[in-house]
Amino acid sequence: MKIAILGGGITGLTAAYYLSRDGHEITVMEKERVLGGLAAGFKGNDWNWHLERAYHHLFATDNDILNFAKEIGFKKIYFESPETSSLFNNESNNFSVYPLDTPIDLLRFPLLSLIDKLRAGFVIVFLKLSPFLPLYKKMTSEEFLKKSMGINVWNRLWKQLFRGKFGRYAGIISSSFIWARIKKRTKALGYVEGGFQSFIDHVESMLKSLKVNVLTGYQVENIKKMGDKFLVNGQTYDKIISTLPTPILVKLTSNIFPKEYLSRFNKLKYLHAITLILETDKQILDKTYWLNICTEKIPFMILAQHTNFADKKNYNNNHLAYIGWYVDKNDEKLKMKSEELIEYVLPHLKILNSKFFILNSYLFKAPFAQPIFDRDFEKNKPDFITPVKNFFIANLDMTYPYDRGTNYAVKLGKEVAKMV
Q1: pLDDT tens-digit profile of 190-231?
Q2: Is 308 helix (H, G, I), strand (E, B) or coil?
Q3: CATH of range 2-76+193-268+378-419; options 3.40.109.10, 3.40.190.10, 3.90.1150.10, 3.50.50.60
Q4: 10-21 vs 406-419: helix axis angle to the nearest 10?
Q5: What is the pTM of this model?
Q6: Residue 95 near residue 295, CB atoms below 8 Å
Q7: Which residues lie below 8 Å from residue 150, measured CB to CB, with a gap of 6+?
Q8: Other CB atoms closer than 10 Å to residue 240's CB: what's the count?
Q9: Angle formed at CA 358 by CA 356 and CA 363, multiple of 5 degrees
């Protein structure tokens, strides 16, 4: 069969691998000039390794991508346990950073009472060990955490994290999200030698050896249904797999899918992602890789010192840090250039460290990057099977209740290939 795969991210590449291996004639269509989607990388001056446009790492429990890498002979994934910390402020606006990686870290945390810490620790263990319960669909994360851990723990540990990640939607996020977040997380984190782009390049080479037609810089302009076939930009295919973001898929398929079917997708809500990457002479964070921002006084969601995880020798001995936001489509930061965002964040970075100099900066923006996991998300999200025979969907909205990531991209690609 001739199968068109719309989108050259990891989901599309995984599906292409399994389907081509089974003897199908596959064409992958990617509008960017490089494959990989949100995991695609770039290289700065004199770097040996690629760097992702948005921060990426693996958990030790990410078996789908780890098994896939093993299957295709990719052996460049390693694991370490970099430090994760959180930034807080007190009433005098003095800022402090505390590690919160382990049960011992939680017990030593000075901003909660012993009772609050024990209560929080018990609930975290419960979430870690529990299966997915119907209860999680019925409550918001805020309701669940306030009732189970207490209001003090919510206000100190969780409130600003949810505000940073989900903005004005923070109060309606289903507790299935916090269950999945804690369930999946491991202290050991994985990264790819050469950056995730080296993994993507390896998959691409496998696809080319299987005679997959990989089209980059290729915009899908129109899709038509012709009897039991499909026309994509005038070319005929027996089946289609779309890995495109749901809002983009809706625009492309308004003449194919029933209006009632598409109307449910229009109920889904998203935030856009902004990542500002700073290349500096000295690190901004001394030891911490991942710094959660637990104070509204700092106007960004995350600071990730990448070179406290991947050695700076791979990046011309300079240091790299991600600063990240999820924002509404009308947020002014989406209009800002790199220099404007640096001016916006620099006074706050200087609170953490005043001794670094910015050598280069890189700015990336991605639409529809963060779906809003409200109580209605599950019933409105896409599924593999659609009302139109032989048209399949496999996109990252379907990782629910888990947060998006390369592991679930592989899982979706493998699952949709089986269905096709």
Answers
A1: 999 999 999 999 999 999 999 999 999 999 999 999 999 999
A2: helix
A3: 3.50.50.60
A4: 40
A5: 0.95
A6: yes
A7: 116, 119, 120
A8: 23
A9: 135
